# Entry
Amino acid sequence: MPMIDRIRYLKARLGQFRDDLRGTMSVELVLVLPILFWAYAAMLVFYDAYRARMEAQSAALHIADLVSRHPGMIEADYLEGLNDVFDFLTSRNRQTRLRVSSVMLDMDTMEPAIVWSYGTRGLPSLNALSDYVYMPDPDNPEDPPTGFDNFDNQLPVSDLASRIPIVLPGEALILVEAFTLWSNPIISGLGAGILNDVRLAPIAVTRPRFSPFVRFEGDGDIFPELPPELLPPTGEPVGPEDPEEPAEPEDPADQTVTIVDTDFNDGDTDGWSHSTVTDGGLGSALLGPFGQETWQNPVTYQVNLGAQSRSAEIEFDLWIIDSWDGFSTQYAHPEGEFLTILVNGTAISLDPFQWGPGMMTLERRTVSSRAEGRFTTTMELVEVAQAYGAHWQDQRWRVRIEVENPATELATEFTLGFAARLDAPLQNESFGIDRFRITAERGSWGPMHFVPDFDSRIGTDPLTRFRTYSGCPERRIPAATMPMLNSDLSEPIRMRRSASGANGIGNCGLPGADRYNTASPTLVVDYVNDTSDINGNRLRIRTQDNNSGNSCDAALLIRDPYGQYYYNDTLADSWTNVDYNARVNLGHATTGRYTIWMGHYFRETCQTDLRFERY
# Structure
């Protein structure tokens, strides 16, 4: 056959092969079927893996929530039991481990640091991992152990530090690392060695619900008994000093002297501006009673320590006589009924009182740092009896004023005063003083305390008589301090206070950039969240001028126990319904100290009600 015919024949045969469709489906099936089987198996594998990961993450969040709600000291047995809870929640027959840690801010490095850590079922704690050295089996160096016997399965995730949220000073976060070993049943059933014992390691981080930190039996007592403003740096000793450490030699000049000690039974009122002495029903006399006239004409005592002193202590019994009404909307002044203790004419404490039980019978503590000294005033209710006045039950409070660095290096005198804000006559509301005693510890001054800048003083609040200062908000400036229970807020508490806008806070690094505040706090609240049910028991702080904020366009700045700030100046439901009062919802607020500043939308000063309520 000629060459040309052969070429034509070959082309014809190739054309027939190209156009022939017989067996196409069989060929495609052979090509695609393995891919289909792989895709279907992969879908089952991926679904099972993500399901296991989701279950482990959800269970870890539940475990973290349980730890955050623990009211007391956590023990190792409790955490081991939580691992059983984790197994129940994941409902898989797998090996699991938990590692629970407490993370706080190291004030030296400003980085998160581990306070305590515990691993269940033999898992090393987080702070001990750096000391753990894995030694391979010398007989099988190339065959690592399986499960959690493999050291790699005990390590935290590589980016753990970056996954921990910002830790604020004064708080300790709860970190839960959940470890579970996952194997796919399909691949394992086929006898394949891949995807066996794959570690899933979700983490969960949360804040403690009812206190700034959660204690653990192995935490080394690093946490103080009360919520701190700043937790101590990790590694710093906490607790009493070494008893074997020799004490510093005592200064020969150090000695405690009694300046005055009287119970007024002899009628001696030397040094007092008022000389009224009354015999009471308990067989003891008291200086008083005094009433609403003292708001304009305070009862004063001229304190003279006689010589330079390291510290001084003023102690006396304060009788709250008859029907004081606290913050009653019906029977008290809008600003409330309270007693203010003064030094040189301005307040170092302001304490409301009310007959009968309630939060106004709680202990009080106010710290006032001034040029005259650092005054710490504490009050404790020690007796309720009908001793003076009418038929109402009277209250006897034990008052202690501790003074650090009293007066100045050149002066040893200051005027102690008492002024009551009352709306009823002496026969119905009054106070008296008994068992008055002053002692002083001679010696040189201790470390200097905080003193507000005198040049920034702008006046005295007419409602509270605390000094006011300009500048950025400063929580160390003296202010009225009040205890408050969530359970006592079934009815809102309101008090008339001044809202002042002396200076802009835009350069203070705080919210409310273009609004105006003073440096002086309006009120410090020692809040106790004693209600476990969240519904209807959340805390709200607001202003109310009864004119949609048009009479007093106040602004609120609040610092919570963790050092976080909240700000609000306007409530706007719509453009046509604007309320210029301020409101801050704090949710199920944690127990601790809240510092409140009442500012103004503009550079102005006005008076409005400060309200505490539940929602």
Remarks:
- The first strand starts at residue 96 and ends at 106.
- The longest helix spans residues 24-68.
